[in-house]
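Re: [help] complex structure
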Amino acid sequence: MVTALARIGDFGLFCVRVGRSTFRHRPPIARSIEEAYHIGFRSLPILLVISAFVGTNLALQGYNAFVPLGGQRLVGMFIALAGVRELAPIMVASMVAAKAGTEMASQIAVMRIQEQIDALEVMAIDPHWYLVVPRFVGICLVLPALTMISIFTLVLASYLVSVYQLGLNGPEFIQLASATTRPVDLWYCVLKAFAFGIVICLVSCYYGFTTRPGPSGVGRATNAAVVVSAVVCSLLNYVMSEILFG
Amino acid sequence: MTVREPPDPIIRMVDLHKRFGELVVLDGVTFGIPRGLTTVLLGPSGTGKSVLIKHIVGLLEPDSGEVWVDDVRVDTASVRQQYAVRKRFGMMFQNGALFDNLTAGENVEFPLRYHTSHNAAKRRKIAEEKLALVELPEVYDRPTSALSGGQRKRVSLARAIVLEPDVVLFDEPNSGLDPLTSSTVDALISRMKDQLGITFVVITHDIVQALAIGDWIGMLSGGELVEYGPREDFLKSESDVVRGFLARNHTV
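Output below.
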């Protein structure tokens, strides 16, 4: 219990240092764009595939649930509620945590072990500014965009299955889905994506910075980064949905 | 225990204590590092040499005691002050600590990018000069993965001196090197001290290296500095620890 509290306190101090570094100096723009490109580009293919198949399955299961009640035409509404508001943001967050988050944690952990972070300190270059801030800016730029792409892919795939496989009415699907999804809901999804991006970046970089020596230390840091990011994002998703969507 | 005080110390440590959990690493270390000379801190592995050197640049905070670099007390300095002090230092790390995503030359010019307003051409020119100084003029565009252990250390040294610091710290410069490469590194350190006139602080467990390059030599054991002074005095030490260490290394 004491160790867990100490860890939380240490993480808090780490966040304060990152915050200070973010506002004390101008973020390294070129490196931030580079990070955004890497996070977005590397996560995109897998994200498209998974979003599409989550969309197809949501349509199938929604249809199966509504058929006994005679409400199969409500599949579009179901997709909008479950897919757009809930599944897409958390799915993108999980994917980015598993791909970009683990990469951040392992890269920084290796740099810690090889004394490259100490080298930055001795060169009077703030390692939080140099290593965390570009990743922070990059993930905050990219995660909302990835979430919007995921939402579009998920809805498109569920539309195709609903109309061409299940024989539902296309215009009615679109009408019910768009009636259920208000424009503000998409802004709420962007807000969720920002929050998840901040969590993933800070947690992953923190575990990288505080890794223990040796290859097992890197493995443990990487594992902890993805597990803690996923758990915190899931919890945050529930809290934010409760606050934003009621 | 004899610890001599140098006439014009650039760095001073006063009653430094550091422990990690139950393990006492530094137990009241007090000494000064003379300006413009090479100081070697000697001791077997695990005696806190690296811990000591990291206190100088504020990478570690002591549990108690003081660390001074000229008139600045490093251990209680603000982050801004610490960074100002660090700009006066260069450091060669045990494994080089080169950035793998950069070439050897880019590693050398890395500090210039953040601490000077030089353009890319000027930075490259300076980096090439420093690489020539460490006798590696041809490796600028080479990835760090293609460098040998000795070359990595020399590139790291070129990076350490690129901002022309007042003090360069060396963490085990000869570890992992064959005897021939080790003597090349020693010769390089001696030559650079004469050419650049800067203060070198070297920590090592290699007595041969200590005697080859050290103007002042100290011996750490059990968290204490058991002997410290000019090389001639060190060799005449009557400390059992020093005599034992010298004898084990077949030096006397």
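The radius of gyration of chain B is 18 Å.
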